[in-house]
Amino acid sequence: MQQRWMAAGLEALRKGGVAGVRIERLAADLGISKGSFYWHFRDRGHLLRELLDFWAREMTELEFERIARLPPRLDERLLALARDVLEKGLGRYDPAIRGWARTDRSVAAAVERVDGRRVRALAQLFEQGGFAAAQARLRARLFYTFLLGEPQVRAPRRHPGELERMVAMLAAR
User: Fold this and answer.
1) Which domain holds residue 158?
2) What predicted TM-score, i.e. pTM, was given to this entire model?
3) Which residues contact residue 24 at a Cβ distance below 8 angstroms, ignoring those fewer than 6 apart?
């Protein structure tokens, strides 16, 4: 049940910002009583802290663990990650979390930690793909910036096969 509260909380955050994360509203959306909330969380602040941890774990740690289990080809790993973020919606909460971070220093610090973790993990992928550390860090930042920015760009739309070509370009030595 706690997972359902977390999923509903992230959706509320995505749709209405941090102000949209309200216990009564989440309970109504889930079709359960507010009492269920207090079984899992002390208060709204506890839920919000847990949402940040959930976001970091589910959208970062678990994803990089999954990517590490793929065959070791850099282009295949990067493409799988790009598809998860851009086509399967793994990055759909990032804009809301980043919006929240502009008004809350502790959230900003959490976002900074997650960004650092993600870039380090990407740099490690590039290093495993044969790039020197400095080149790996640059490519990691470029790829990460692309993953964050691409969902914000509505036009021009990507052409068929373009994502694959962009990833291949970044992975090429």
Assistant:
1) 51-171
2) 0.92
3) 34
